[in-house]
């Protein structure tokens, strides 16, 4: 049985069918929504019994199966009352989860492969970040293949917090994503042979976004014990922080007006 067939059959047992055409709107949707909440509570209750009673709760799997079935009925009912099909919902959800959490092979990404070598990010280079003291202030100096690149960096903060090391993020983008407008500019590898690419992908706006993401990563880590021992990040939390950074970055472009979607 596929999901759409199940949904159609389940609708035949709906005790509160939609009456919106007759003006009696509300209960037809509220009942299954409350049903979802109630059955979720039943599922949690069964798990509580399992934690309390252990193997003596002999019907645990059967009860879980029953409660999940009830949840599926209510999900299908709510979907039907919004004129949605379970099959479409399931396929869209799989696409979203694959895009978000599926296998990601970034090893073959080379956004500038079609350009001449002098406009490509180098495929291999050696970076040295060293701390120097200039006029009594600690700064980080970056050398690429022995040559000083860019300005010496400070924390740009009243209270030292180590942000002067943040070029490691840009370098990480190059290594993992094959992307960093900031490093491309520092290495003088902007793709000037194609003006549109140079302006849009390698220009000032792209560099602001690059710096914004670095600031996001640094501030998020700073507020979460530098992510020590953390292997995964909460998607919704990090997405919300990303939206704030992108809004800030776009605000740095006076001529740009854009509506950002709210984070889910």
From TrEMBL:
Residues 1-27 are annotated as: Disordered. SUPFAM superfamilies: all-alpha NTP pyrophosphatases. Residues 109-236 form the MazG C-terminal domain. This is Nucleotide pyrophosphohydrolase. Residues 9-23 have a biased composition (Basic and acidic residues). Pfam families: MazG, MazG_C. CDD domains: NTP-PPase_u4. The lineage of its organism: Bacteria, Pseudomonadati, Pseudomonadota, Betaproteobacteria, Rhodocyclales. Residues 34-100 form the NTP pyrophosphohydrolase MazG-like domain. InterPro entries: MazG-like_dom (IPR004518), MazG-related_GP37 (IPR011379), MazG_C (IPR041407). It comes from the Bacteria.
